Amino acid sequence: MSAEWSWKFRTLEANALLWRGMGDSALALLASEPSAPPTVDLEIQKARLECSAHLALSHFPEAEQKLAEADRICVSSDSPACASVIFARGGLEMARGHFRQAQRLFEQTLNSARAHADSFVEANVLLDLGWSALQQEHFDEVLDWSEASYRLSTALQFEDIAQNALGNLGWAYYRLGESERAQGFFIEAGKRATQLGDVSDQVKWLTNAGYVYLDANDYRKAEQSYQQALDLAKGINSRQDILNALASLALVSERTGKLDQARDYADKTIALAPQEGDRLDILYPMLVKGHVAARQHGTAQAEKTFREIEQDPKSHVFLKWEAEHSLAQLYEGESKSDSADREYRAALTTFETARSSLQHEESSLPFPANASGIYDDYIHFLVSQAKTAEALQVAEYSRGRALAEGLGLLQKGTSFKPDATKAQAIARKAGGTILFYWLGEKQSYLWAITAQRTSLFTLPPKSEIDPTVQRYRKALADQQEFLQTTDADGRALYRTLVAPAQPLLPKNAQVFIIPDGSLNTLNFETLLVSDPTPHYWIEDVTIADANSLHLLGAQPAASKSTGSLLLLGNAVAPNLDYPELRKAFAEMESIKKHFPPGQQQTFARDQATPAAYLASKPGQFSYVHFVAHGTASRTSPLDSAIVLSRSDAAKDDSFKLYARDIIHQPLRAELVTISTCYGAGARAYSGEGLVGLSWAFLRAGAHNVIGALWEVSDASTPQLMDELYSGLKKGMRPDSALRQAKLSLLHSSNAFRKPFYWAPFQLYTGS
Fold first, then answer.
1. Would you call 609 helix, strand, or coil by DSSP?
2. Distance CA 129, CA 112 (A)
3. Taking Cα atoms as reference points, which of 663, 588, 660, 656 lies closest to residue 618?
4. In angstroms, rounded to a whole number, what is the distance separating the alpha carbons of residues 267 and 250?
5. Alpha-carbon dihedral of residues 201, 204, 208, 214, nearest 10 degrees?
6. Taking the model in full, what pTM does it have?
7. Do residues 482 and 755 make contact, with C-beta atoms less than 8 angstroms apart?
8. What is the pLDDT of residues 597-634, one digit of tens each?
9. Please, what is the Cα angle at 544 between 541 and 546, to 5 degrees?
10. Is the peptide bond before 366 cis (omega within 30 degrees of 0)?
11. Regarding predicted confidence, which is higher, 4 or 336?
12. DSSP assignment string, 272-339
């Protein structure tokens, strides 16, 4: 074999070893060839591969030396291989924590790869641009770069690049607060890395999956993931992977109270971190050491450590707000109330600044989950200081921000400045009592707000409330009838959530619920009142849900006129998954009769398409109604959809009117009714509530939206909707008309009296 071909094979083999994280083996292989590379291209490739191998081993001076050799060759050569040297220098800058410099080098390489039609390098550099954006906390860009890399590498079967792109997407979703979605990406990336024999990436995805377990308080699984990652990292002698695994073990040890072990792991991590390396490799274990010191009453050392992390210019915003949150808790424990308050506000300012940088709506929705613990601790602190009005301001500040910003009611800000809530004025304008809930780790709270006063009630922690809500919610969907069975959960929820405020709720009161957490999935109308005889709460009050005080206060006065109707439904079944609804025609006819022919536009059968809705100028209608199947996506709520007839036979999903498309069609409708299953959505986001079709129509500008919390019966719904529109025609408000319609079923003598039939529909107001 010629020397040239021998070197070509060696560089290919060395490259494969590097993809598997085996830097030592790659260096040994390249050094084993007795002759020098016979061509300029191969000389450059050898130097670049040696640089990458030294980087994998955290040998920065040696990596720099190899790059300098390649640079000297490229000064007098126009070899295409010189682009790979620029790429390798980007990798070195990343390892040093110089992320912006790395990004510029990667962008230069991308331009070169596209100019030379080198798809492999293009897919690889797209991947690293995602990596760079990730380290700079530009999460919208991470998603864009990583998805582009994944599409290209999948199309061309670059399997190792594809699994890395999946993992990068997982990390971006994790940082955005989408832990459940992130875990799916980590698991899939880990499987692919195992199949490819890529040990270094197996370590990476195991470690990242451990963070999801840690956040879910599954400490056993988290520790198992980290320990397995450490063992694999030691097997390939990957210094960076060993460091990451040790830092993670330090974290889980601190969380589980193994403080000496946590400090030991943190010290080992710091000792292993390269002097010229990424400063973050030291800051994260420092945070663990600060927590250990705080828990062992080393207040001065903990304060010093947290302050150093907060002020370090290399700190990620996640680290910075965690350090500020830790300082707040430290000062609170020391009864330094002013200092604690200042640090809580600093942490929330850091968080809100990060949130304001997100451009995509889908990124903004889950992100508040990252600060839920800070908000919870601050609210608890304020209540303990008897600052109940300020606590409500803070709670309100966290609510419905994506919706309000999308509607132009709030501007994104780079500071945490809660305004006075004007809660009593909002209650007066709305004409009812507002029940504002906060479910917390230590305690939960209810603010009952009337036109005259605001009262605070302390409730049990969410760990006690959530299981009861989940059991009762399941029983409701299972078609149980509770008045005969005397359901304990329904009564317990009423006693816990409503009874404390009962003196503020006269008979036939108008009640606005601003729920939190699991309460977003609960229809309060179904709660069981014991006195004077067992009955559902709907018989005492009229209820509507709102996302926040701000949005409720922005609600315009209800229209007194019947207005015009846009009606879509009774679609042609697009496939076997969505069979035709037997009673759809009857429901549509029962609705149409309440509007003059000249004030209605109807799309049925093959005309009931997503394209027809989008082209109908829906903003001109006072009432919009859908009679159709619906889908609710938990992992991607804006992919929830109303199922209509196909718009285009050539497109597989042309029968779906997606939530993401709905929000871009401005509405001024008094009421949108989504007569579909799960129209309210299947995913509740921290601070934002359920996000799905109902949220999308509110985001588009609808004043009120009716959506379903569970499956909708095709048998009972036409009767309920007929009663609803009868009430609207008489001038009733949408919430009152819906209540009247529900009571007509509840008071019937047939099976429709069960909550399964009348209770899925929930009215959301405030837009």
1. coil
2. 14
3. 663
4. 9
5. 130
6. 0.90
7. yes
8. 999 999 999 999 999 999 999 999 999 999 999 999 99
9. 140
10. no
11. 336
12. HS-TTS-THHHHHHHHHHHHHHHHTT-HHHHHHHHHHHHH-TT--HHHHHHHHHHHHHHHHHTT-HHH
Place of tokens 């682009």: 83
Helix (H, G, I), strand (E, B) or coil at 96: helix
DSSP-assigned letters across all residues of 498-536: TGGGGGG--TTEEEEEE--GGGGG--GGGPEE-SSS-EE
Task: Look up residue 119 and give its amino acid.
Answer: S
Contact 381, 345 (CB under 8 A): no
Per-residue pLDDT reduced to its tens digit, 279-298: 999 999 999 999 999 999 99
What is the 3-class SS of 158-222, one letter each residue? CHHHHHHHHHHHHHHHHHCCCHHHHHHHHHHHHHHHHHHCCHHHHHHHHHHHHHHHHHCCCHHHH
- Rounded to the nearest 10 degrees, what angle do helices 337-356 and 317-333 cross at? 160
Q: What distance in Å separates the CA atoms of residue 524 and residue 108, rounded to the nearest whole number?
A: 58
List helix spans (H) across 616-716: 659-662, 693-700
Residue 585: count of CB within 10 angstroms of its CB: 16
Round to the nearest angstrom and report the end-to-end CA distance of the chain: 75
Supply angle C-alpha 519, 523, 525, rounded to 5: 130
Distance (Å, rounded) from C-alpha 118 to C-alpha 453? 69
**Is the dihedral angle over the CA atoms 25, 29, 32, 35 positive or is it negative?**
negative
What is residue 443's DSSP assignment?
A: -
Collapsing DSSP to helix, strand or coil, 260 comes out as helix
Q: How far apart are CA 388 and CA 283, in angstroms?
A: 36
Distance CA 717, CA 711 (A): 11
| Site of tokens 């509405």 | 667
**Encoded amino acid at 272, one letter:** L
User: With contact defined as beta carbons under 8 Å apart, do 396 and 436 qualify?
Assistant: yes
Which helix H or strand E contains 43, and what residues bound it? helix 40-56
User: pLDDT at position 707, please?
Assistant: 96
Tokens of 501: 């405020």
User: Where does residue 136 rank: exposed (0-12), middle (13-18), buried (19+ CB within 10 A)?
Assistant: middle
